[in-house]
Design goal:
By secondary structure, this protein is α/β, with parallel strands linked by helices. The protein contains 13 helices and eight strands. The protein is globular and about 80 Å long.
């Protein structure tokens, strides 16, 4: 009898998982039609990447998302929409992020950087760029300067990861936890999250900078692009990527302005001090400490936009 009961329970569980999978994929299909990509889809290595572009200015500001950001184009909106009067903005959604498809290529820095550069080119954006990396994209932005210094006018770091943090203090979540979150995402279990929990997990949903349509698109991207395989592989490559950037040294000549959070929601003791020390080792490095969370462009977008505009105008040989 016990064996029969276990078989019945296992069968019911499999049926439940099958129901969840079918329901999730059916709704993803509908959301794909309801929310088409707002930017340009470009093809790289047989996969499509999404580049969102807006604005008419002469300077090109490139926003680079932090790890796990499901909808970069919307995530950065509180900041980029304040800069449209004077600059062009481009948000690059890496493979597995936002409207971009999941790619089979490795997540080493050389691969990711070339994807970003080529996606911008195919979308009609050309260097030099002012880079806006958030969190883990800090490594890619620094590597960009190391490899192609003539393509980068400046780096505006939004709590950007630097290699010293990875070496000294960053504590990564257990692989089992990441795989569990991946499974939850693929089954669509996050769709059953109460609205109150969703707003707590995604505080951007409470922002008055997003329209109701933006918020619906944002959640559609969460259901599609949360904890994708590319995001998991980025964690696997993080140590080697940080070592590669560290081996090249701090780029001394590129102007940098780091906006640095208090680090309370980043599992890396000494976060603020390490980032501050890093940027001060450059010739024209600046920093601003902000008492807010890691996604500081959600909380202090108005201040950051003003500081950024002044900083860009004062860049050496700036034509902006």
């Amino acid at each position: 009898m016990v064996l029969i009961a276990l078989v019945i329970i296992a069968g019911l569980l499999l049926l439940f998982i099958l129901f969840l999978t079918i329901n999730h994929n059916y709704r993803l299909h509908g959301e794909k039609k309801q929310f088409p990509p707002p930017g340009k889809m470009v093809e790289l290595n047989g996969k499509k990447m999404h580049v969102y572009r807006k604005g008419q200015g002469t300077a090109s500001l490139v926003f680079m998302p932090g790890h796990g950001t499901s909808s970069p184009a919307i995530d950065f909106k509180p900041l980029w929409h304040r800069l449209l009067n004077n600059y062009r903005v481009a948000v690059v959604e890496r493979p597995g992020y936002g409207w971009s498809e999941v790619a089979k290529k490795p997540r080493d820095l050389d691969t990711m950087l070339e994807e970003t550069r080529m996606a911008l080119h195919l979308a009609g954006e050309n260097p030099p760029y002012v880079l806006f990396p958030h969190s883990m994209s800090g490594l890619e932005a620094l590597y960009w300067v190391q490899k192609y210094p003539h393509e980068v006018q400046a780096i505006i770091g939004l709590d950007p990861l630097v290699p010293e943090v990875v070496e000294k203090s960053l504590k990564l979540p257990p692989k089992t936890r990441l795989l569990f979150m991946y499974l939850i995402s693929r089954l669509g279990l996050s769709r059953f999250m109460p609205d109150a929990d969703a707003e707590k997990m995604f505080p951007l949903l409470q922002s008055d900078q997003l329209s109701s349509e933006d918020k619906k698109q944002y959640m559609a991207m969460v259901y599609k692009s949360a904890y994708t395989k590319n995001m998991l592989h980025e964690i696997d490559c993080l140590q080697k990527n940080a070592q590669k950037v560290q081996a090249e040294g701090i780029p001394p000549d590129t102007p940098m302005y780091f906006f640095i959070s208090e680090g309370s929601d980043v599992d890396a003791p000494g976060w603020r001090e390490i980032l501050t020390d890093y940027v001060l080792k450059t010739k024209s490095g600046k920093y601003r400490h902000l008492n807010c969370g890691h996604y500081l462009h959600h909380y202090r977008a108005e201040l950051i936009a003003k500081e950024v505009s002044d900083f860009i105008k004062d860049l050496p040989l700036s034509k902006y």
